[in-house]
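Q&A log
Question type: sequence-to-structure
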Amino acid sequence: MPELPEVETVRRRLEPALVGRSFARVEIRDARLVRPLEPAQVAGELEGERVASVDRRGKYLIFRFESGRVLLVHLRMTGSFRHAPRADAVTDAHERAVVKLDDGSDVAYRDVRRFGTWLLLEPEEVDGYLAERLGDEPLERRFTARSLAERLAGRRAPVKAALLDQRALAGLGNIYVDEALWRARIHPLRPARQLGDDELRRLHRAIRDVLRAGIARQGATLRDYRTPDGGRGRMQRAFRVYGRTDAPCDRCGTPIEKTRAGGRGTWYCPTCQPIFPRD
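Response status: OK
Response body:
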């Protein structure tokens, strides 16, 4: 599933192509994308809207229109956008929607697994919808080691599962949580409430560092993720633990192990990330 670095990369690539442009024609080819509303209804509402900005909140892309309305897009597991001049556009069996802009170019939405969603909201609905579902933005200044401690305080769940909770911290997913925990030398099955002050400071720093590294490498392409120009991310080349079962730890040489936490496959170094840390 695209996580914060992948979604932020998509946002940065789409922003210059969309801001100031109008949706001249919209075709929604998959009813699941906008259900329970009818595709023709949503397409009709979108046509004529002019894009004021392209923002991100957690894993949501936020298309803000000059009318004040907002289109929220969640890519889920396999959603992606492709922007191209009409002459270069290639029809794909997995295209679920196509937006023709007023400059003649196309923005196509592709989704193999069909879990992605488009939601058109009125101005007064947006803040409440996002606040109900999302916690702190980990790259914003107000996200501090103290605020992280407050989010994890009293949580009996493993720290891996607690960090995957979007209501606690927005945008983190399986890949970047594993990578952050390795950087912070914290075992993914440690109960979140047991982390000490020094561990929380290390974890706070590690979360921000790994997300910035992911953005700098334009995300991680493991399977379906692509940038809007069709490019691939490079973060997968810099993984320290994720998906590296039995490979030597880059820090100590111990073979990386795999377990499960929060129902997700989880990778860690048993030496660098002991389940019972020394005092």
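Response note: The mean pLDDT is 95.
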